[in-house]
Amino acid sequence: MEYLEVSSVQKLQTLSALLSTQQHDDDDDDEDNKNPTACAKLGPGHIGPPPKKDKEVSTAYVKKNSKDIWSEEEVVEGSQYDDLADPRPQPEYEIILKQTVGTEDLFLGLRGKDPSSMCCEAMLVKIKLPNTKATDVVLDVKEKFLDLRTPKYKLGLHLPHPIHNQEGKAQFFSEREELEVTLLLNRPMDFINMQ
Question: Exposed/middle/buried for 38, CB within 10 Å: 0-12, 13-18, 19+?
Fold first, then answer.
């Protein structure tokens, strides 16, 4: 029985020596190879040449697909509106998420709504525009970007959630000198969440 074990270890060593491209010159390795208990430590990873270490990429950018010109992380949506030479300041703004809650939600919890942002239907953007008239405001809303221009201010705002850019409303309050833009959120699972 011991002869079978030794012969199978010797066969494994011989096979490893044939497939391996490296030669072990150490005397310690030769002594270990003669000892059957030391050879029992050999496994499938010991057969063949050692794995080659990949060269580290020196550049910071690695293309995922050879046909891609740039990655999505490099292009910020709405960057066409950025103008570094424009000295106009950015006005103060606030983003508030809104949801419609009825008594059936508040007391009975029938529609399963909770205070999380996932249950919100709209986004309210309040923009303070001191010394500005309603006729001076130029507003352009895309799916993920809000662009506001006045003679004194400019705002290029990347929205935290996609919206329906054709639906929504804007209202200017002269007494507060504030523009309120209400935008309906565009969620992929709205037909399930908003039932």
Answer: middle
